[in-house]
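Late entry, evening session. Most of the bench is empty. Finally got around to the prediction I had been postponing all week. Sequence below, unchanged from the version circulated by S.P.
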Amino acid sequence: MALFLLTYGYHDTDLRAQHRDDHVAYLNKLRDDGTLVAAGPYGDRTGGAILFQAENESDVEALIAGDPYTRLNVTKDRFLREWRVTVGSVVQSG
């Protein structure tokens, strides 16, 4: 399993607030499935980051595509990269 970090910004839209519960529920499902390690918004609420664990980038891209925020075009400037921890640790489930 590899780690992948997604960073993104938000479009200025009411859809973000309207579908936040759906977005969080989707992220909680991914956490329960063992593919999401951590997720959350930036302190200034201009965007956020999600850390995934998966076999490959294609698998993560499919997960991102299923997120209500992605489907509704709430997020912008999405950037996905494989990420390797060299100092410290990340607690991974399962």
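Two things to note before I forget:
The chain has one domain: 2-82.
Strands lie at 2-10, 36-41, 47-54, 75-83.
Will write this up properly tomorrow.
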